[in-house]
């Protein structure tokens, strides 16, 4: 942000002098069609169209205020229990903050930074070392949070300058290396300092202090939630202002066409390093908050898995979209929490799954095709169930679904015992069926869809529900692939319009 | 190859201190020798065109002038100052600007933002810079909120020129302004170039379209496989028999 200091606060609007009068006359050769592109954009019908129109016409500050209003009210109606507020509220906010920092690096400056989690981790360890009994420093948060940001910024600056000629794929490799080196350093190397391993090795550093500002301790989940909400809003506002400033426009210009930006005298590399540092500072801050919230700093929380989730958030929300990060984080974290093994909502998982399938079928056109598929899937299921029950015996069909829904036991085949490789055959069968459906056309595809959907249900009930960790990742993958196919720009990203 | 004096002033007498001067420049891409002993100059307020076929080294000449590639031998000087080892942004700060080949606008950004990027070095452009560009291209004011990528080819050419002019250049480099434009737009585009030139900006226009560019230029150079094969006043070049041969390459 340092370069923005010449234009503090509100971005300067470029001057707009009066237009010299355009001469009236022939309209031949005047591309009014292009000029009116905005007005010509078809507005969607129905409530969804109205919502989309409302969203697009609302000013950005209103959107942020609406989010804050809703988020601030959540602890009082939807997330009343401490556990819910912790899992759904607080962690979503932390993911929003992390996603915002990553959005600056990836979405605005276009740097493929795979070391982002390391800066997150550095922030967490900085907090752990300075605000815990580990070395006996119990520094207050108003000191440790800025130090955590600084601790993340310094290696980011060094890495950025060292790699300033290595933009693009090379930067991805260098930063990935940095992330791995950080993991090895914290987990294995763990050099001894003042008589102790500085990172606590695989056990990490436990028993951190709660966030304490000027003697005031944030201990309850609600307090932490509101503090994190405030932090996220400040970060979002800072990124928004930076993005609206000349720096932000130069970021976008260098992302679109680095060479053209360079010959416009935009210092492309310097701006990219600035974005890299800016993102790392946000990651460091969130790392410190995360450490305080989870009262420990453990290196496995900063591994590639977390990086993948963060990228999923940014991609899902849309590259370059700040609001998209909020949406992406909510979707990803909430669905992730529901799929957690120890979640309290087993039947919700089922509704999520079958609801999604029925939603997809219902969108098929014409309606009778959807009806045929639905009826076919249901009928196919009962038929298979009857055949298996008759031929293979009751042991194959009397397993209990996880949440014990009644009608399902007569429809899906769930073996009572673990039948060898049954699960694996289901997986392979499903992959083959999907490939078959993809290669078929017309009514053949419709006919093949029914058994495929049934197989999906079998896989879901037999495998995925019982091993939610795997399920979550598979679902992410499928979700991202589907999204990239139907909406490549992400949920809130703007599609690129180019006439070349 | 660095004997500077003597041969330079043979063909064109007048200008005492040219704005831009390339002296026996050798530029390489890796081991490939592209520009071979190139001598070229552009006087203040002059419109010079550089002709040549494909792969004759025209774009490399511009890249050498701007410092995107550095010559291995020879020197580039601007307003008498040797800028051979200076950075691109230094040269732009000294008063150069370029309209790149294929325009290379920032597609998802508005016309206004594109213009602003052109004046990045001058803090994003003062009001009079915008005024100057809008007076030249009233259409850009009309369309300032439109995304540059949604404009037609001719309009994009205006944005690209406007963006370059935002840097208040003394020397405007143009890389194939006629590329990808309908014939009527090529003429229109060259009218604009002439207009900009008449406002006092020196120009170096790289072109394949010899007829149109020579019709507005003061002087011309013809490149063929990295060497100058012809140079002289535009009027003379237009009469030259070998010109056709040269700019078609070979």
Description of the structure:
The complex is a heterodimer of chains A (500) and B (250). Chain A is mainly alpha-helical and 500 residues long. Chain A has 19 helices and four strands. In chain A, β1 and β2 form a beta hairpin. Chain A starts with 31 loop residues before the first helix and ends in a 14-residue tail after the last helix. The longest helix of chain B is centred in the last third of the chain and has 16 residues. Chain B has a domain of 70 residues. In chain B, α3 packs parallel to α6. With 250 residues, chain B is of the alpha/beta class. The N terminus of chain B is likely disordered. Chain B is 35% helix and 25% strand. Chain B contains ten helices and ten strands. Chain B is globular, with a radius of gyration of 18 Å. In chain B, the strands form two sheets. In chain B, strands 6-7-8-3-9-10 form a six-stranded mixed β-sheet, sandwiched between helices. The chains are: A mainly alpha (500), B alpha/beta (250). The interface between A and B is large, with 36 and 48 residues.
């Amino acid at each position: 942000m340092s370069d923005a200091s010449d234009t503090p606060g509100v971005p300067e609007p470029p001057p707009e002098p009066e237009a010299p009068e355009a001469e009236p006359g022939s309209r031949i050769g005047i591309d009014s069609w292009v000029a009116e592109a905005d007005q010509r954009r078809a507005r969607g019908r129905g409530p969804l169209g109205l919502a989309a129109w409302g969203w697009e016409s609302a000013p950005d500050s209103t959107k942020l205020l609406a989010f804050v209003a809703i988020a601030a009210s959540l602890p009082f109606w939807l997330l009343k229990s401490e556990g819910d507020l912790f899992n759904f509220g607080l962690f979503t906010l932390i993911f929003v903050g992390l996603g915002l920092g990553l959005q600056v690096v990836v979405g605005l400056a276009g740097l493929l930074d795979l070391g982002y989690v390391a800066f997150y981790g550095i922030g967490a360890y900085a907090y752990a070392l300075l605000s815990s009994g580990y070395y006996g420093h119990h520094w207050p948060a108003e000191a440790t949070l800025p130090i955590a940001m600084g601790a993340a910024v310094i290696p980011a600056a060094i890495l950025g300058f060292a790699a300033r000629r290595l933009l693009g794929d090379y930067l991805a490799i260098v930063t990935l290396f940095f992330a791995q080196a950080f993991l090895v350093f914290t987990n294995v190397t763990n050099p001894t300092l003042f008589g102790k391993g500085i990172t606590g090795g695989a056990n990490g550093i436990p028993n951190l202090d709660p966030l304490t500002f000027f003697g005031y301790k944030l201990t309850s989940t609600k307090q932490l939630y509101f503090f994190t909400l405030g932090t996220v809003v400040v970060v979002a506002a800072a990124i928004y202002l930076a993005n609206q400033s000349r720096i932000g426009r130069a970021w976008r210009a260098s992302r679109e066409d680095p060479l053209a930006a360079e010959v416009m005298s935009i210092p492309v590399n310097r701006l990219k390093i600035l974005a890299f540092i800016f993102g790392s500072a946000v990651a460091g801050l969130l790392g410190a908050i995360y450490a305080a919230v989870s009262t420990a700093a453990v290196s496995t929380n900063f591994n590639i898995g977390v990086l993948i989730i963060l990228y999923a958030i940014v991609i899902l929300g849309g590259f370059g979209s700040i609001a998209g990060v909020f949406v992406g984080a909510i979707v990803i974290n909430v669905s992730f929490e529901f799929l957690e093994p120890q979640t309290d909502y087993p039947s919700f998982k089922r509704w999520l799954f079958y609801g999604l399938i029925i939603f997809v079928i219902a969108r098929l056109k014409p309606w009778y095709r959807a009806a045929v598929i639905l009826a076919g899937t249901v009928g196919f299921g009962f038929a298979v169930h009857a055949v298996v029950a008759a031929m293979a015996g009751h042991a194959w069909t009397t397993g209990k679904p996880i949440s014990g829904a009644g009608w399902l036991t007569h429809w899906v085949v769930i073996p009572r015992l673990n039948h060898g490789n049954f699960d694996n055959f289901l997986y392979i069968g499903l992959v083959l069926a999907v490939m078959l459906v993809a290669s078929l056309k017309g009514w053949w595809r419709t006919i093949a869809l029914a058994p495929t959907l049934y197989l999906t249900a079998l896989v879901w009930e037999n495998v995925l529900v019982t091993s939610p960790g795997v399920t979550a990742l598979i679902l992410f993958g499928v979700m991202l692939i589907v999204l990239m196919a139907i909406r490549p720009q992400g949920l809130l990203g703007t599609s690129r319009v180019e006439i070349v | 190859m660095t004997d500077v004096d003597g041969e330079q002033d043979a063909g064109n007498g007048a200008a005492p201190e040219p704005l831009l001067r390339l002296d026996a420049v050798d530029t390489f891409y890796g081991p490939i020798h592209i520009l071979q002993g190139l001598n070229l100059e552009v006087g203040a307020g002059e419109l010079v065109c550089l002709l040549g076929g494909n792969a004759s080294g025209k774009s490399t000449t511009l890249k050498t002038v701007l410092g995107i590639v550095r010559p291995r031998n020879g020197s580039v000087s601007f307003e008498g100052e040797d800028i051979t080892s200076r950075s691109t942004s230094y040269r732009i700060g000294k008063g150069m600007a370029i309209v790149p080949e294929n325009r290379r606008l920032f597609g998802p950004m508005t016309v206004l933002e594109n213009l602003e990027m052109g004046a990045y070095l001058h803090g994003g452009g003062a009001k009079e810079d915008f005024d100057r560009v809008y007076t030249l291209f009233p259409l850009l004011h009309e369309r300032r909120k439109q995304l540059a990528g949604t404009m037609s080819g001719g309009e994009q050419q205006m944005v690209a020129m406007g963006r370059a002019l935002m840097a208040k250049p003394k020397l405007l480099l143009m890389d194939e302004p006629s590329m990808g434009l309908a014939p009527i737009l090529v003429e229109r585009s060259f009218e604009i170039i002439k207009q900009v030139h008449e406002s006092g900006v020196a120009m170096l226009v790289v072109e394949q379209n010899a007829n149109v560019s020579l019709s507005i230029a003061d002087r011309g150079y013809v490149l063929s496989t990295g060497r100058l094969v012809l140079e002289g006043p535009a009027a003379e070049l237009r009469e030259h028999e070998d010109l056709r041969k040269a700019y078609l390459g070979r």
